[in-house]
Specification:
371 residues; alpha/beta; Rossmann fold; Dehydroquinate synthase-like, alpha domain; 2 domains; seven-stranded mixed sheet; 46% helix
Length: 371
């Protein structure tokens, strides 16, 4: 059996599930699934990149365990999170005659995890699903917590449902196939957990960044600590009615930048979060809430990881401040038209600030656009 280095339990009553973290878990997925969910068939939703790199390992394990399966392979990329591709995934589930008691597997990064979970939530009025995240970003963030969905022309993740997985299998060996840029993008979400409310974790990341990127034991520990952090928040606020919004540190700015760059390879999600976290800290400092030196310290750490930290680091021309503000106004945290931001009083001291003055945000963005 594969080595399960870490296990995190998400205690949500009858919807509770485990996050298993270890090396080569895909190769033992068949026995693990057969033991936990006997007698099921599986619909595997993945993308064409992951299908080449990881799908054969999963299929071999399912076949060895005698588990029936069908594969639905979608295009890779953020643009896959659309009505069209969601429909293709659901129709694939139905065409394979998977029953309501069978399971969907989301094998891939955050895009596939979000879309696959949403497809499971609506196919046959709701099917169970398993997350098998293959990117760092998905392993530490999007595969945990039950937020599923697709994008709209109006903004990112505006269409979806809360639908908890039955199991998360995070295979550390899949991270070895990521490009340096993709790994770094996921690392931004790792850093986020330290910046929210765990100053000691941020300091630990500063000391262990090299080992995390090199694939040493610190990598698995970092992922487990992030998952445990997110599990605690999800247990406290499953439907994001309160403290769970803190997990969106950097995302209000980041999502607006992603929309502005067309959800393209110009700016990966984690890169948008990296720039967004620096903007959130810089805006907080400008408001007199946080020490300005913290912004520089965080930026230096992200830059060392190869991440963008300023608007000028984003390739190509950005749209106007007015367009960015229009995107921000569509953010999911907006309430009755009032802007809500995750701001900070320093490293590990994030908080939810409601009724943020749009004019002050626009003025700040204009300053950031000035060379």
């Amino acid at each position: 059996m594969a080595d399960i280095a870490h296990k995190v339990h998400v205690a949500l009553g009858e919807r509770a599930y485990d996050i298993l973290i270890g090396d080569r878990l895909l190769d033992d997925a068949g026995p693990i699934l057969a033991e936990r969910f006997p007698g099921r068939r599986y619909g595997i939703i993945t993308d064409d990149n992951v299908a080449k790199a990881q799908l054969p390992r999963l299929l071999a394990s399912l076949d060895a365990a005698g588990l029936g399966h069908t594969e639905i392979v979608l295009p890779a990329g953020e643009s896959t999170k659309s009505w069209t591709l969601l429909g293709q995934a659901v129709e694939g589930i139905l065409a394979a005659r998977l029953e309501r008691g069978d399971l969907v597997i989301a094998l891939g990064g955050g895009v596939i995890g979000d879309l696959g979970g949403f497809a499971a939530s609506i196919a046959r009025r709701g099917m169970d699903f398993v997350q098998m995240p293959t990117s760092l970003l998905a392993q530490v963030d999007s595969s945990v917590g039950g937020k599923t969905g697709i994008n709209s022309p109006h903004g990112k993740n505006l269409i979806g449902a809360f639908h908890q997985p039955r199991l998360v299998l995070a295979d550390l060996s899949t991270l070895d196939t990521l490009s340096p840029r993709q790994f770094a993008a996921g690392y931004a979400e790792v850093v986020k957990y330290g910046l929210i409310d765990d100053e000691d974790f941020f300091f630990w990341l500063e000391a262990n960044q090299a080992e995390i990127f090199a694939g040493g034991p610190a990598r698995g520990e970092a992922i487990a600590r992030c998952c445990a952090h997110k599990a605690r928040v999800v247990i406290a606020d499953e439907k994001e009615l309160g403290v769970r919004a803190l997990l969106n540190l950097g995302h209000t700015f980041g999502h607006a930048l992603e929309k502005d760059t067309g959800y393209s390879d110009r700016l990966l999600h984690g890169e948008g979060v990296a720039v967004g976290m620096i903007l959130a800290h810089g805006f907080s400092a400008q408001l007199g809430l946080a020490p300005s030196q913290d912004t520089g310290r965080i930026a230096a750490h992200l830059q060392k990881a190869g991440l963008p930290t300023t608007l000028s680091d984003i390739p190509g021309a950005l749209g106007s401040t007015e367009l960015l503000m229009a995107a921000i106004a569509q953010d999911k945290k907006v309430s009755r038209g009032a802007l809500t931001f995750i701001l900070t009083r320093g490293i590990g001291k994030a908080f939810i600030e409601r009724n943020v003055e749009p004019g002050s945000v626009a003025a700040f963005l204009n300053q950031q656009r000035t060379p």
